[in-house]
Structures are given as C-alpha cells and as structure tokens.
Design brief:
The complex is a heterodimer of chains A (228) and B (442). Chain A is globular. The longest helix of chain A is centred in the C-terminal third of the chain and has 18 residues. Chain A has 228 residues and is of the alpha/beta class. In chain A, the strands form two sheets. In chain A, strands 6-7-8-3-9-10 form a six-stranded mixed β-sheet, sandwiched between helices. Chain A has a four-stranded antiparallel β-sheet with strand order 2-1-4-5, with helices on one face. In chain A, 34% of the residues lie in helices and 28% in strands. With 442 residues, chain B is an alpha+beta fold. Helix content of chain B is 52%, strand content 17%. Chain B contains 17 helices and eleven strands. Chain B has a six-stranded mixed barrel with strand order 2-3-7-4-6-5. A two-stranded antiparallel ribbon of chain B has the order 10-11. In chain B, strand 2 and strand 3 form a beta hairpin. In chain B, helix 3 packs antiparallel against helix 12, helix 3 packs antiparallel against helix 15 and helix 12 runs parallel beside helix 16. The longest helix of chain B has 39 residues. The radius of gyration of chain B is 33 Å and the shape is elongated. The chains are: A alpha/beta (228), B alpha+beta (442). The interface between A and B is large, with 50 and 41 residues.
Chain lengths: 228, 442
C-alpha cells in the first residue's frame, strides 16, 4: 500500500452508478485533502454529490475511479467489509435522522460500538458518562431514544460518534431534522469538540447558517467541487 | 485520537468475546419487544409446532412401547407373549419335526433353576404348544393349544395393565388357577361349538408316540384374544393337561422375562453364556422378542413413516413461517443494519444479532410448547379416550401420550434449529444491501 500525507486524501475520484440503465455521475474527478483537526463543511444543493463524497470519506462507499487515502494509507482497493475495523476505530458517524438503536438506552447505544473495540466495562462506562455529560444529556444515560427530544437524540448520536475516540467525524445533514435553536447548539457543540479533542469533522449541509460560520467550506455542484 | 492507521487496524477483525456475545444476546432479546405482535406470532408458531410434534411423538412412543409390550406379554392376540427372550432347541426352525415334541426341551426343571439364578431374570415360563381337535360330543373343530403355568403367565399378561389400565388380561387366565382339569377357549371357537363355561369337552391330540390321545376337560373360560383370527382356534390350558395329552414332560420352549429391558443385549449375552457353561450338550438357541415379532415390526415401520412425514411437515411449516417473519423483521431494520455497519460492526456481528433473535424465539417457543404439551398430555391421558383397534386386532385401546421421552429433547433442538436456520434469510438480506443502500432504505 502506498501512503500519503493528510488524514484523508482523495485523488481524482469519480462515482458513477446506474439508475434504470442510465449512468449517473454523482462525483466527477474530485480531489481534496483533509487534515487532522479540520472542520470542513460540504455545501451545495441537493443532488450535488455531498452525501456521496461524505460516504467515500467515511469509508462506507468506494469510488468508481480515483484513489482514496486514509491516514496516509491507500485504501482504494480494500473491500468495504475489511474496512469495518477502520471505521470502528477511526470514524464516527452522525446522521440526519440520528440512526440510534431504539431498543437500547443512551448508555447502551454508546456501549455497543465500544464493546467491539475491545474496551472493558469500566472504560466503556467512563467514556459513556464523560461524553453524555459533555454533550449535555448526562442525566439521560438510562433513557431510550424514544424518551429523548430531537436535539437530545442528535446529542446522543454525537456522544456515540465521539466515544470511540475517532480521528474523523462524518456528519450528513446533522441539523436537518432539528429546529433552529437545536441546530445552532449542535453545530456549536461539534465546533467545541473539534477544538477540544482535535477530532476532524466533515459535515454535509445546505443550511446557510452552518455554511456561513464554517472555517473550511467546499461548495459542490453536479458532482464537482466548484469552490472552497 | 489514534494517530497511526496501520494495515492491521484495517484488516483485523472486530473483537468477538463471550462478553460481546452476551451483549448481543441481550440486544437480540430486546429486539423481540420491538414488534410484539410479530414476535408473539413467531413464538406462537414455535410453541405450536413444538407442542404438536411433542404430543405426536408422545403418542408414537406410547404406541410403540405398547406394541412392544403387547408382543412380549400377550403375543398380539393372546397367542402367548414371547417374553423378553425364548429358549428353543436349536433345531427348531431349521429342521422339521417328524413327531410330536421331537425338538422339545427335556429336563426343564434343572434348566429353569439355572436360568433363575441369573440376577437379571425375573421369571421363567415353560410352554407346551400342541394342536388337535376339540369336541363337545356333537361337533369337533381344530384348535391350536398352549399349555402354560398359570401363575407366571398371569403375571406376564397382567403387566399390560401397567401400560393400559383398561386391559385386564391377567384376569382372563384366573380360571386356570382353580386346579381343575380345564381349558379356556377363544371366543369364536367357543361360539362355533355353542360352548358355555362349565361345559365338559374332549380334546384330542397326537402323543409323542404318534398315537391319538383324548383328555376330558371342563370349559373354564371364554376369552377374546384381541385378534379375531386367533379367536377361531385358540385354546389355553394348564401345562399339566398338555403333558397328559401328548404324554410327555418335554416342553416346546421357555420364555424368559428379565426384570427390565435396559441393556438388553448385555443381558442376552449373559444368559447365553450361562446356558453355554451349564448345558453344553443341550444345544439351545436364544431368540430375542423382536426377532419373532413380524407384526410389531410391520406396524412400527408404518408408524415410523407416518410420524416422520408428519414431523417433517410440522418442521417445514415452522421453518417457513419463521422464515417469513424473520424476513419482514429484517426488511424493517435495513436502515439500522446500515447504521451498525457504518459504525464498524461487521456483517458477522450483525448477523449474530439476527441469529440470536431467532434462537431466542425458538427457545421461548419451545419452552412454552413443552409446557403446553405437558398439560395437554395430562388432559389427554385423564380423558381416557378410546381408540379403535390397530389393524389386525379386535380390541380397542385407551389413548395415552407420553410427555417425556428421549425424542422430546430432539424435538426441542429440532424446532430451535429450524427457527435459527430461518434467520439465514436475514443474513442473505444483510449481505445483499450495501452500507449506503441500507442507510438510504426507507
């Protein structure tokens, strides 16, 4: 495997897929580098390729062409199944619809990925309490997602993503299901965590408030990065 | 934050310890409460399948055991039960007798004493088989007679009452204990002679010398053997009457009853070696009960086919029903599967959750099914339902279901396995969807 600098490096990647025999080019010859500690917002209208790019950055999708480097290592040809462990140890995900496990409590939602990282119960408990408190829902540790508000659910999703001590957090429209007040506090929280823990954050959004206040913005249109 | 991404961090599998397994089991258990109605139906299917199969197997086990005991104790229609093992002169079945009792066993008293010393032997039954004519003065008809010692023969027959309390077979032989020189006749042969209990009759047979001999006997009883065909020629008498008739103290065979049928082959070998040691010149052969039970074997084979077929259908219904439920359950949770895969759980881990869910449905269903079958078996047994006679017999029997046989654990395992296998459809779905496809699934 060849290596390169930066946490994530994409070289001339394209992503094509077929919809009823029609070829759709979701990403067209995109190159970018994201470094450790960056806070990057992918902006653009719906269908511009934000989510596709985010999926490739988050190692849950593969490009049709081009090269992907994660932590300096070329993972272009590594099958997705073999990247489970990489995602488990290095990437945290935050989804628009929270994607929490409804039958598990807040603590158990955080516990599940940590178990598979091989952490012992004491470590897991410490991490879960620490991050639930950090995101402001420490008192909800034994509540199931159905007992939490939208904002609290997203905070729980952030705590789950962070507790695994990832190098990268990938967030796809994390505020789209939230009201303005909650959206602002979630973005603020992500920024604080980015500063506090040095975790790299890449998020996709078309919310002008988020885009406006971001340090690094990548605007996308028709599968290409048009400006940064 | 991790600084170095290594080859091993990419390629090594996730930790999969016993602790994780327990957590996944707990997750699987909680998932059962997501769609309670669906889980209820899945468990209901498992419980119903388990109960149905268990009751069917309970009935099968009772039927087979009853047939075995009937063969051993009553010989399918009172033509004298075989006992656990019969001892013959080794020429029996290999050569034809030229005269009465040519292959009979002599010196039976010594032989019986020797056999009784075997710790596994409960009792021994000497038997004389003979044929001839019976006459009431007006009419003569052929018979097939059995000379027996009533004491142990009653014990042998009465053993059936332990299996089926309605059968009072031992009582039918009681008249032979009176000490009077008499006989018991099958129902049909008695009817053909217009005979009634207390009538005097003459039985004729060939003696060991080849001459015809006749003995006056009193009709002590009329019985149904349970087999219409046997009732046409059946005659039972004391062994002393038979000896007087054929003019010999030889017997046709000895039936041996062990205390039980556990380790039957070992008991048989032990008995054989004891006979070989003590009676080297006697040349006996031991025939276990099932080697001369053609009727039992044919019915058993039919039962085996019927119950295997029925069991397979139940298992397939349980499998397909649960397959369908697991499919629906999985399809509803595609997005969650995508989430779990995105956050780093392998398809193996996720598949384990679904397999454990199905396993738990199986375990809960089987537990309920076994309780249901225990209750149902008790009710069925208490109702004393009368079943029509088995083919070839004229005697109805009481339906019983054995609630605990060695088949029941196999049923439990089979149902749990079938339901667990049904979750393999989930694994196919999990593999079929990409992570992105799963996350986008609505």
């Amino acid at each position: 495997m060849s290596t390169t600098a930066g946490l994530i490096q994409l070289e001339n990647i394209s992503r094509k897929y077929y919809l009823d025999k029609t070829e759709i080019c979701a990403l067209d010859n995109v190159s970018l580098q994201i470094n450790k500690g960056d806070f990057v917002v992918l902006a653009g209208p719906s269908g511009s390729g934000k989510t596709t790019l985010l999926n490739i950055i988050g190692c849950i999708d593969k490009p049709s062409h081009g090269k992907v480097f994660f932590g300096g290592m070329d993972i272009t040809d590594t099958p997705l199944q073999k990247l489970d462990h990489l995602r488990l140890n290095n990437i945290g995900f935050i989804f628009q619809t929270f994607n929490l496990i409804p039958v598990l409590t807040a603590f158990e939602n955080i516990e599940l990925p940590l178990l598979f990282k091989g952490l012992d119960e004491k470590q897991i408990k410490l991490l879960a309490v620490k991050f639930l408190q950090r995101v402001g829902i420490g008192e909800k540790i034994n509540q199931k997602p159905s007992n939490l508000s939208g904002g609290q659910r997203q905070r729980l999703a952030i705590a789950r993503a962070l507790a695994g001590n990832p190098s990268l957090i990938v967030a796809d429209e994390p505020t789209a299901s939230l009201d303005r007040k909650n959206a602002e506090s979630i973005i603020e929280l992500l920024r604080e965590l980015n500063d506090e823990f040095g975790v790299t954050v890449v998020l996709a959004s078309h919310d002008p408030m988020i885009i406006e206040h971001s340090r690094t913005k990548l605007f996308m249109r028709d599968g290409c990065i048009v400006s940064d | 934050m991790p600084d170095i991404i290594t080859d091993s961090s990419i390629n090594s599998g996730a930790h999969h310890t016993w602790r994780n397994f327990v957590k996944l089991l707990r997750l699987g258990y909680r998932n059962l409460f997501r769609n309670r109605r669906r889980s209820f139906f899945a468990i209901l299917i498992a419980a119903s399948g388990c109960a149905a199969l268990s009751i069917a197997i309970g009935y099968y086990s009772f039927s087979i055991y009853s047939l075995q005991e009937l063969t051993i104790r009553n010989g399918f229609g009172g033509s004298s039960g075989s006992g656990h093992v019969q001892i013959f002169d080794k020429r029996v079945g290999e050569q034809s007798e030229q005269r009465t009792m040519e292959f009979g066993i002599d010196g039976v008293g010594v032989l019986m004493e020797k056999i009784k010393k075997d710790v596994d032997v409960d009792y021994v039954l000497p038997r004389v088989e003979f044929g001839g004519l019976i006459s009431n003065g007006d009419r003569s008809v052929p018979f097939k007679g059995f000379g027996v010692e009533p004491e142990n023969e009653i014990r042998l027959w009465a053993g059936m009452s332990e299996i089926n309390p309605r059968l009072k077979l031992g009582e039918q032989l009681m008249p032979l204990k009176t000490g009077r020189q008499g006989i018991i006749l099958g129902k049909t042969i008695a009817n053909s002679l217009h005979a009634k209990v207390g009538d005097m009759m003459i039985i004729y047979s060939t003696t060991v010398d080849g001459t015809i001999n006749g003995v006056d006997v009193e009709l002590l009883g009329i019985m149904s053997t349970g087999v219409s065909e046997t009732d046409k020629y059946y005659l039972l008498t004391n062994i002393s009457v038979a000896e007087k008739l054929i003019n010999s103290h030889k017997i046709s065979l000895l039936s041996v009853m062990f205390k039980n049928r556990k380790h039957f082959d070992n008991k048989l070998r032990s008995l054989q070696s004891q006979l070989d040691k003590g009676f080297t010149s006697a040349n006996f052969k031991l025939v276990p009960w099932d080697e001369q039970a053609a009727f039992y074997i044919s019915i058993r084979d039919i039962f085996n086919i019927i119950f295997t077929f029925m069991g397979s259908i139940i298992i397939v219904i349980v499998l397909l029903s649960c397959w369908n439920i697991m499919n629906m359950t999985t399809m509803e949770r595609i997005k969650e599967i995508g989430t779990l895969r995105a956050i780093g759980l392998s398809t193996k881990n996720i598949s384990t959750i679904f397999i454990l869910e199905a396993f738990l449905i199986g375990v809960i269903g089987v537990a309920i099914g076994m309780i249901v079958q225990l209750i149902a078996s008790r009710i069925i047994n208490a109702l004393r339902i009368i079943m029509p006679p088995v083919p070839g017999m004229s005697r109805p029997y009481t339906l019983q279901v054995y609630a605990a046989t060695w088949f029941h654990p196999l049923i439990a395992i089979g149902i749990i396995a079938a339901i667990t296998v049904s979750s393999f459809s989930s694994l196919i779905i999990i593999k079929r969807f990409s992570i992105v496809g799963s996350l986008e699934h609505t």
